[in-house]
Specification:
There is one protein chain. The protein is an alpha/beta fold. It has 2 domains: about 160 residues, 3-Layer(aba) Sandwich (D-Maltodextrin-Binding Protein, domain 2), CATH 3.40.190; about 100 residues, Periplasmic binding protein-like II (D-Maltodextrin-Binding Protein, domain 2). The chain is about 45% helix and about 20% strand. Strands 1, 2, 3, 4, 5, 6, 7, 8, 9 and 10 form a 10-stranded mixed β-sheet that branches. Helix 2 packs across helix 10, helix 4 packs across helix 12 and helix 7 crosses helix 12.
């Protein structure tokens, strides 16, 4: 081959390589690891956003459920993936801000090894009680607990669950002595609450509202900073006299640390766009959640603040998981 021909061939090869690597992100399917079984709240929210992201980018955002260890297994898998934007993590704040204080050994540092993209959506917990309990307000509940220290039981979905941590925060702030009864999941806990075997529980808003509207449970307050559109008649804990009892369940998108800033910015912009769509808002509303997007730096600040907050609560309650 003549020297000129070799030079032209080399130039063509370099140009084709540049074109391939210079394709706008995403140029192929994106895997979004959800570190829980299918069908849960975080899985649902992530799938809603993945569908929208697939529609707007022209590339498939495919959910890959990798459950185990309260989300730690899937989070580790995502964090140790190539930081190129093609493996992401759709996760609840319970995993990234509560687990670091719950577990004696963590496989990764959630703040160091993951790059925040944006929160997807958020919803409060609801403080719900059986109608037979003689307390129709939070203050009446606190008075009852103080009159009968240690006798008032509360259900949770399990040790270290969001329902457990929310109740421990309430116990600390209200300075009351209530007894934890852990169950293996929200379903069994709600079943015993409905049956009157336990009198109270902090639970996700959507299933709580359904039972309250059916007259089977009473909602005393929600743990958000504002009232929820899903239950506008239910006061916040702040309105009930306990402004420090704020607990929001949120689901967000993260990438492996080291993911290029332009890819994180692209993912953030597409997420914000998705949250503004009517379809996404309506699907989230059906589950009692509201779109709540952030910048990557805002999400990082929220993660740091919540990690410190829950460390204090978990240490005070002496909760540990191996």
């Amino acid at each position: 081959m003549r020297p000129v021909a070799k030079i032209l061939l080399l130039a063509a090869l370099l140009a084709s390589c540049a074109a391939a690597t210079g394709q706008p992100f995403p140029a192929r399917a994106v895997r979004v690891i959800v570190p829980y079984p299918p069908g849960g709240g975080a899985d649902f929210v992530t799938r809603v956003f993945c569908k929208s992201l697939s529609d707007t980018t022209g590339q498939q955002f495919v959910v890959d459920n990798r459950a185990g260890a309260n989300g730690n297994i899937g989070a580790e898998l995502a964090a140790k993936s190539a930081p190129n934007g093609y493996t992401l993590l759709g996760v609840a704040n319970t995993t990234v801000t509560i687990n670091p204080s719950l577990y004696s050994k963590m496989p990764i540092d959630m703040l160091r090894d993951l790059a925040p993209v944006s929160i997807f959506a958020a919803q409060p917990n609801a403080l719900i009680v059986h109608p037979a309990l003689p307390a129709k307000t939070v203050k009446e509940l606190v008075a009852l607990a103080r009159t009968h220290p240690g006798e008032l039981n509360y259900a949770s979905a399990g040790t270290g669950s969001s329902s457990h941590i929310a109740a421990e925060l309430f116990r600390m702030v209200a300075q009351i002595n209530i007894t934890h009864v852990p169950y293996k999941g929200n379903g069994p806990a709600m079943s015993d609450l409905l049956g009157g075997q336990v009198p109270m529980m902090f639970n996700n808003l959507a299933p709580s509202v359904a039972q309250v509207k059916a007259g089977k449970l009473r909602a005393l307050a929600v743990t958000g900073e504002q009232r929820s559109p899903a239950a506008p008649e239910v006061p916040t804990m702040a309105e009930a006299g306990y402004p420090k009892v704020v607990f929001m369940l949120w689901v967000g998108l993260l990438a492996p640390a080291g993911t290029p800033a332009d890819i994180v910015a692209k993912l953030n912009a597409e997420t914000v766009k998705a949250a503004q769509s009517r379809e996404v808002r309506e699907r989230l509303a059906g589950e009692g959640a509201d779109p709540y997007t952030t910048s990557p730096s805002q999400m990082a600040d929220i993660m740091r603040d919540e990690t410190a907050k829950w460390l204090s609560v978990i240490k005070s309650a002496n909760i540990r998981l191996e």
